[in-house]
């Protein structure tokens, strides 16, 4: 049975059957502020998916971009009085260290927008030549009237798209645009902003075009899976599709996976509300595995509110799993090649901890639209069975292996908190 995953484009759970080499692209961060729990929750979903795909024999090539020039990093750099690339470098270093601490495996490539400018210019030129884009007032815009499928991914009405575009910086009332939903491919830079020479005038890239250019450069016209947070469905991913498909004539992705947003104690977690929970702050007070487990207790498609008590539940689960895993290290070694196999059929080991049904439950849950909370329940049940005296020598080693599937290493000593 293949993994089944919800596809945003089809709006249903479908079998996800990629080739052996899975070409995956997940939209990355704009490095102007620290990694918050929303980032962590998003990237964790893909991290667990990748682990399960690898177990099934796939090789996953994950590319995650870095938006190191856009409308949010430039004002922040100006405000701090630093060069925007220095700000990007510093924040990328912090992001990588937060992600690594949470046990997230790095992507195979992290292309930066500023390094992809030649590919971006090339794509804009092609869009202009093909009549999908126009120049106005020193900028270049995508003409959505040339792409009738605009809106097919998000399934939003024109009115909803205009409203959301306005909320997300799309400036539908820009007088240079022919249509309010037309979006910027290239924009004239303000006097103190970076600018690149281009055949259509000096300026800097729009946001959406960088991902189209990077996907094409890294993986070719069609991805096996494209991901990001649900806030990227419109306008970002809708616009990526319009740009890419207009040039390649191919679908941009065979499967679209989006992870839901995280709120904090009753309110949307956002920069403007000043209620962001930063991973680096949690790392000061908690074992990274407890943070990881606390986040993974929520399904990737269910938006959730983070409460400070979530961390306690993550800690408690980690303690139970570690205590059960430690049962394998005393007496007969159950970890590694020496582990005894086949005890389940032996009546002497017929206690409550035959790990196989639990392992099946874990994998079944992961394959059912990445239901990590249910997988964690199965792990927790296996731990309880081990701790309540189920005398199966394989069980702790199996628990350790299964926990690795969700990215938790139970063989590392607990951090003193
Ligand atoms: Zn993107």
Which features would summarize this protein structure in a list?
417 residues; alpha/beta; Rossmann fold; Four Helix Bundle (Hemerythrin (Met), subunit A); 2 domains; four-stranded parallel beta sheet; four-stranded antiparallel beta sheet; 13 helices; binds zinc ion
Provide a descriptive summary of the structure in words.
It is a single chain. The chain is α/β, with parallel strands linked by helices and 417 residues long. The chain folds into 2 domains: 3-268, 3-Layer(aba) Sandwich (Rossmann fold), CATH 3.40.50.620; 313-405, Four Helix Bundle (Hemerythrin (Met), subunit A). The protein has helices at residues 37-55, 73-80, 84-101, 117-129, 158-167, 207-219, 233-248, 279-285, 288-296, 308-326, 356-367, 372-387, 395-405; strands spanning 3-7, 12-16, 21-26, 59-64, 133-136, 139-142, 183-187, 204-205, 225-229, 256-259, 262-264, 267-268, 304-306. The strands form 4 sheets. Strands 4-3-9-10 form a 4-stranded parallel sheet, with helices on both faces. Strand 11 (262-264) and strand 12 form a beta hairpin. The radius of gyration is 24 Å and the shape is elongated.
């Amino acid at each position: 049975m293949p993994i089944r995953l919800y596809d945003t484009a089809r709006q249903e759970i479908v079998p996800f059957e990629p080739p052996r080499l899975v070409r995956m692209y997940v939209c990355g961060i704009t490095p102007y502020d620290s990694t918050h729990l929303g980032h962590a929750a998003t990237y964790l979903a893909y991290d667990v998916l990748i682990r399960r795909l690898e177990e099934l024999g796939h090789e996953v090539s994950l590319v995650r971009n870095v938006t190191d020039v856009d409308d949010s990093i430039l004002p922040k750099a100006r405000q701090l009085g630093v060069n925007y690339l220095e700000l990007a470098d510093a924040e990328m270093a912090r992001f990588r260290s937060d992600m690594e601490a949470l046990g997230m495996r790095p992507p195979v490539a992290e292309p930066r927008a500023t390094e992809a400018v030649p590919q971006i210019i090339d794509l804009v030129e092609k869009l202009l030549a093909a009549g999908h884009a126009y120049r106005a007032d020193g900028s270049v815009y995508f003409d959505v009237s040339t792409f009738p499928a605009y809106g097919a991914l998000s399934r939003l009405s024109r009115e909803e798209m205009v409203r959301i575009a306005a909320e997300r910086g799309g400036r539908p009332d820009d007088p240079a645009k022919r249509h309010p939903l037309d979006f910027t491919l290239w924009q004239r830079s303000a006097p103190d902003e970076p600018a690149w020479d281009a055949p259509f005038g000096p300026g800097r890239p729009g946001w959406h075009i960088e991902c189209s250019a990077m996907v094409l450069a890294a993986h070719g016209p069609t991805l096996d899976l494209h991901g990001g947070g649900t806030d990227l469905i419109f306008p970002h991913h809708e616009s990526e599709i319009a740009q890419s498909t207009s040039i390649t004539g191919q679908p941009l992705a065979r499967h679209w996976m989006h992870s839901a947003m995280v709120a904090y104690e009753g309110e949307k977690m956002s920069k403007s509300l000043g209620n962001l929970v930063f991973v680096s702050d949690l790392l000061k007070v908690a074992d990274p595995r407890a943070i990881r487990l606390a986040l993974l207790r929520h399904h990737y498609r269910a938006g959730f509110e983070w409460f400070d008590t979530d961390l306690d539940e993550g800690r408690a689960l980690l303690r139970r799993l570690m205590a059960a895993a430690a049962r394998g290290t005393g007496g007969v070694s159950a970890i590694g090649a020496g582990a005894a196999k086949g005890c389940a059929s032996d009546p002497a080991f017929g206690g409550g901890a035959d790990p196989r049904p639990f392992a099946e439950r874990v994998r079944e849950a992961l394959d059912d639209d990445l239901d990590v909370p249910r997988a964690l329940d199965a792990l927790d049940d296996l731990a309880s069975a081990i701790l309540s005296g189920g005398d199966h020598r394989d069980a702790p080693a199996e628990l350790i292996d299964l926990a690795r599937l969700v990215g938790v290493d139970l063989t590392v000593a607990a951090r003193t908190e």
